[in-house]
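Appendix B, Record 12. Input sequence as logged:
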Amino acid sequence: MADAAAVVAETTHGTHWSFAAIDPSSARERILSAATRLFCHHGFAATGVDAVIAEAGTAKATLYKHFTSKEELIAAVLEAEGATWREWFFGRLSQVNGPAQTRLLAVFDILEEWLADPHFYGCPFINAVAEFDTDNDAVRAAADRHKAHLMTWLKAQALELGAPDATETARSFAVLIDGAIVAAQNARDPGFARTAKALAATYLAQITQGPVSRAT
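Logged structural output:
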């Protein structure tokens, strides 16, 4: 059985977790790539359309040909970033051999790799939801769709593991994942992924050991 951390390390080269790291093949992708860099590094609200146009080296008419508004551009960036990150993340996980518990803990090895990347800027969905009002339907819908993919995978692992409450196990892992991302972004310390992994291991031990018999 391959060690999860070793598999993660062996499959790092030549993959991208951000859409901005992929060479654009069209004017639309060039605009999306420029918007991704600016929105994710400088903020969605703080970055204007003119800055995106300058970064992309395109005309305003070209941008509006593909995106009718800044809101539509933000939604497209979130969708592109989400799809790219998930392809990278789940691609990493597909290389991990072993039972559900091994795969669940490998999540944090992969997470640490992402958090340690010098280009890491946090989760665009967490950042976007934090920037905008909670009733911003487009941003929240994009974040919900992204999170649903992860929750579905986590719940499937919890079911295979035989967790007493697979939904609650998935939610617990989501809390540890999001907490590690936010803490690492704030402290610039990818080691929070290792802390989250240790907590996850303790949690899994508790839910898989069964009821503790008590002497009378």
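Residues 3 and 200 are 17 Å apart (CA to CA).
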